[in-house]
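Section 3.1: Structural characterization of target chains.
Under the original work plan, the team committed to producing a structural model for every single-chain target entering the pipeline before any wet-lab resources were allocated. The record below documents one such target. The sequence was received from the expression subgroup and is listed exactly as submitted; it comprises 446 residues.
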Amino acid sequence: MTFDLSPQKSPAGPSSSHRREFLKKAGLAGLISGIPGLATGIFSGCSHDFPNLSSGRNPIHVGLLHSQTGTLALNENPVRDAETLAIEEINARGGLLGRQLEIICPDTRSRTELYPRRARTLLVDNNVAAVFGGWSSAGRKAVLPVLEEFSRLLFFPLAYEGNESHHNVIYGGMVPNQQLLPAIDWLLSPAEGSRTKVFLAGTDVIYSRTANFIARKYLQSKGMQVMGETYLASASKDVASLVDQIQKSGADCVLSTIQGDTNVSFYRALAQAGVNPSQILVVATSVGENSIQNLLPAEVAGHFTARSYFQRVPGELNQRWVDRFRSEFGYDRVLSDSMEAGYCLVHLWANAVRECGALDADSVRQALAEVEFEGPSGVYRMDPRTQHFSKRFRIGKITTDRSIEVIHESPDVITPDPYPQFAFPGWSCDWTKQGLVKGAEVSNED
């Protein structure tokens, strides 16, 4: 099966110069208004019968790489739905390059070893133009050799630990200098009681280990104390020992990088142990609106989460996006940070394809440096040096109706730095110049 890398003409429309200017400026407002209806029949299962993309009228296959079952499904299924909404909107406006988009969405089942196998199926059997999704850092790293082999791009929507810049990955989530470090500064501020005794709780995965390595270095520079550090097995529900350690440690706050639906067990156990947020405050980096819907308000209200986007971010564009998503997927649904990133990445990729008139990774990557997308909470524009995005930091407080109220945000967006020098001295990346520069090897135990 071959892949058509040749530029193709767009259907009749504005002139090239006017079209490019429009695509740079076009965002959610232009996409949502005037759409007569969403496209149907855009999903396909995994088979070997998909049409070759060399035909100009055949659909363009797009891969969504998500766990639809297992411990990560609670968080990944909503991201899949947000990406699907973006693809439906693109199709409703005529598709790309005169062709409709067709989704291929295999189940990675929350198993790291299935991510590269499913990615290979997407690229070989289904001949997808790009891959969107992923969740765990282990899964993302396992996919990298497959992306290199077939020269395709992965659009990764999740906040992650940094310490990575791969030419075949577009990183749509926050990195620690945009999330962890501002969260620590907020905890230390008088507004939050100048908390200085921090317990680090995480899952025994790459993300938590690396994020807490960075957090330890930063806490030390701020004169704050690490009162304890514990990691739970993936998908673990046995959190009683962790809660006991937190209570005995003398910590006045917890910085949590716990992943998946273990968060439900963790908050429930805290409440059952009588842990009061006013005494021991939890600030989580991997908890959004979807994560708390299976908890009683008394089990989670009063704790905090650090993200870039929350459903209650003010603004007309955000409200219109929330309303549109709910009209398609259910009025009881909630939206989260990784959902916004996944949605915006799909539209940004589409803008880049229109800009360059091609589907190959090199052309799209170059075009991504020239286009932008105005999403629900702000403009998405890729930094071509690192292939990450500037993000606004926000702290949200979980309320008694299990929504999240924004109580603090950074005055401006924060430039991404995947390699903060206090943690990774000598490491840097600039794909517009020398690429990745490696410093000394760093151990998470340092």
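The first strand starts at residue 43 and ends at 44.
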